[in-house]
Design brief:
CATH superfamily of the largest domain: DNA ligase/mRNA capping enzyme
Shape: globular
GO molecular function: ATP binding; GTP binding; mRNA guanylyltransferase activity
Number of strands: 17
Mean pLDDT: 88
GO cellular component, one term: nucleus
Low-confidence stretches: 78-87
Pfam family, one: mRNA_cap_C
Number of helices: 8
Protein name: mRNA guanylyltransferase
CATH topology of the largest domain: D-amino Acid Aminotransferase, Chain A, domain 1
Oligomer: single chain
Number of domains: 2
Distance between the termini: 43 Å
Radius of gyration: 23 Å
Strand content: 35-45%
Keywords: GTP-binding, mRNA capping, mRNA processing, Nucleotide-binding, Nucleotidyltransferase, Nucleus, Transferase
Length: 349
């Protein structure tokens, strides 16, 4: 399967092929003024690429996670045998298709609902479309995937009932519609922790894309590090945070833990695990190096959660940019103060 995806995308590596945004800082306002962007809420879900593969006259579905593992979704087989009223073969199935999106979970009482929010398409019926504009790809996603999918579910309630999750297009607005996105975020039933800005004319770029932007409130910016556990002569554990650099992991900073987390980690050391951390400017970190007196520094990273979906820390340059975003602290109010200028430039184009 990995070989088929590599062939479809014409890439020569086995890494997760999804596009990755960079953090939004104040210089990015210039991008929003000079170029047309779409904006959407940043769902705090699990990133997947959906592979629809033609197998034995059926369209079978696999979900590809960020570790580039492939998960077969048995219950999603039949609904992708799309009905095409223009086709003489009413049982025509699609060939390989790759859809980018995010799985979110909504809970209401004892009810749990999973939704796959599709926000891009990379390969459409075995034809690579990454070179097409984002607006064109969204049109393909709606017309060629979501519309026939919904028609199939409507036509056959038995299929609809078996679905392990629903699939829909993630809603986007023009970049000057930020206020509307913020207002809708307040009513979402899934977690959302920021905004995503995508250039309207941008091609799809696997890996880091310098024009794909993510924004979080200053106090919600996080970074993913690899944890390294070392021990003193008396077996006291110390924790370091590593970043990715040139294909390896290197030391970035020390980590000071809260007492309850320290107790948990001492019992179960998370050496080499990837975890998400939030920067706290008021957090005091004691740095201990063998042969030197301990020193205390102001400001440090605090543990949020383990990232079992990742095996690599953020790149060093990405972490430094995140720190810059935290220090700059672009707020929601600043976005709203730029809206008139962003709208005027969009209309002028």
């Amino acid at each position: 399967l990995r070989g088929r995806v590599k062939s479809l995308l014409k890439v020569n590596h086995d890494r997760f092929p999804g596009s990755q945004p960079i953090s939004f800082d104040r210089s990015a306002f210039q991008l929003l003024e000079n170029e047309d962007y779409f904006v959407s809420e940043k769902a705090d879900g699990v990133r997947y690429i959906m592979l629809i593969a033609h197998e034995d006259r059926k369209s079978t579905v696999f979900m590809v996670d960020r570790l580039n593992n492939y998960h077969y979704i048995k219950e999603m087989q039949m609904h992708l045998q799309f009905h095409d009223p223009k086709s003489k073969n009413q049982h025509q199935t699609r060939r390989e298709t790759l859809i980018d999106g995010e799985m979110v979970v909504e809970r209401s009482g004892n009810q749990v609902r999973r939704r796959f929010l599709a926000f891009d398409i990379m390969v459409n019926s075995s034809i690579i479309v990454t070179h097409r504009s984002y607006s064109t790809r969204l049109g393909m996603l709606h017309q060629d995937i979501i519309k026939p999918y919904l028609e199939t579910l409507k036509r056959d309630p038995a299929i609809a009932k078996r679905q392990p999750f629903t699939m829909e297009i993630k809603k986007v607005e023009r970049s000057y519609g930020i206020k509307l996105v913020f207002s809708e975020m307040a009513n979402l039933k899934h977690k959302s922790d920021g905004l995503i800005f995508t250039p309207v004319k941008q091609e799809y770029i696997p890996g880091t894309c310098a024009k794909l932007l993510k924004w979080k409130p200053p106090d919600a910016n996080t970074a993913d590090f690899k944890i390294q556990v070392t021990y003193s002569k008396d077996r006291k554990p110390f924790y370091k945070l590593l970043v990715a650099a040139n294909g390896v992991h290197k030391y970035f900073t020390h980590l000071q833990l809260e007492p309850d987390v320290y107790a948990q980690w001492r019992a179960h050391p998370p050496d080499n695990r990837i975890a998400e951390f939030r920067f706290d400017p008021d957090w005091k970190v004691t740095v201990v190096e063998e042969g030197y007196a301990p020193i205390t520094q102001q400001g440090g990273w605090r543990f949020q959660r383990f990232r079992n979906d990742k095996n690599t820390a953020n790149d060093e340059a990405v972490v430094k940019q995140i720190i810059q975003c935290i220090r700059q602290g672009v707020t929601r109010q600043e976005f709203e103060s730029h809206l008139d200028k962003i709208r005027a430039h969009w209309k002028a184009r």
